[in-house]
Amino acid sequence: AQTVTQSQPEMSVQEAETVTLSCTYDTSESDYYLFWYKQPPSRQMILVIRQEAYKQQNATENRFSVNFQKAAKSFSLKISDSQLGDAAMYFCAYRSAGTSGSRLTFGEGTQLTVNP
Amino acid sequence: ETGVTQTPRHLVMGMTNKKSLKCEQHLGHNAMYWYKQSAKKPLELMFVYNFKEQTENNSVPSRFSPECPNSSHLFLHLHTLQPEDSALYLCASSQDQGNTEAFFGQGTRLTVV
Fold this sequence. Notes:
heterodimer; A: 12 strands
């Protein structure tokens, strides 16, 4: 079974600064997908960024980028130019490829605080 | 707004009550999920439905009974719950391919008294 680990229960960053959230995972599969979700106080889980394991190029979405290290099974999220609206719980998630209705396995989450 | 709607948003129920949670999506997705989110714990997958058929039951106690009458609706029937079942229950949907994201509802905050 796959597991996802987020070793940082809480992180804080100054507005406009950069912060990196860590995620590691364990799997025996070679093809899979990784996601970062954001859950603000409204409780709505929102996709931030996704990465296909077969792609070597790191995904980027505006101020959000990932550092995907497949051999190390590491998938960190970098938030640049942090904004107050980035404050939320961030979850790393894993999903098998090519399986119908396959589950998302989540990490424990990292609570990000953005200080003005 | 993600296109996945859950009702009610909050629910308080006694241990002898019977209640149901509802989830609805009109995104054309084929897979729907129930997750449980408790404080200080990762999201726990409870059930997976794919094309209305249950494809996964993650050892969930029988006091939780899912129902998927069609690809757009998913219910979670609750009966004789325990206080430790108090949590945020999240519904999600996705296309059935693995690389597509799951869209989540805003959850039902359940308190069992």
